[in-house]
Amino acid sequence: xxxxxxxxxxxxxxxxxxxxxxxxxxxxxxxxxxxxxxxxxxxxxxxxxxxxxxxxxxxxxxxxxxxxxxxxxxxxxxxxxxxxxxxxxxxxxxxxxxxxxxxxxxxxxxxxxxxxxxxxxxxxxxxxxxxxxxxxxxxxxxxxxxxxxxxxxxxxxxxxxxxxxxxxxxxxxxxxxxxxxxxx
Length: 184
Fold this sequence. Notes:
Number of strands: 5
Largest sheet: 5 strands, mixed
Number of helices: 8
Mean pLDDT: 95
Distance between the termini: 19 Å
Oligomer: single chain
Helix content: 40-55%
Low-confidence stretches: none
Strand content: 15-25%
Shape: globular
Structural class: alpha/beta
Radius of gyration: 16 Å
């Protein structure tokens, strides 16, 4: 959803009276051939946290060493604890459900990774039918002029609890804190 004076009331209504799912991915890298290695989400109904999910996914491609340095997920750990993409992504889609606002920090990247994985593993996902909100765009609109819109910097600048640890679930909870603070 493009952030504007017309869409802000819709976002506020979702935040107060609707269903919001905040999600994040950790990946093997940033190219089209890379894959998701952790997927996490948190559901908020009427502004209250109702449930969380986090899954590790065993990638079928190599891990970029720079990506591993960021999130700390090794291939050995993922082979031991990860599900297949065919197991993990349907869990996320079921968690997501219908009639929801899907929120992420840099949502374009995360949605692109989910769509790439769906193509690669022949899974169905229609992102176009889902209302979305990017907290980067929301922050730029509601807190203009900040020196940085990285999640970790926004948490500090706006005095929001949470950490941007690059564990997908930690980042989801931090992003949710940002989303609800901005719309308060």
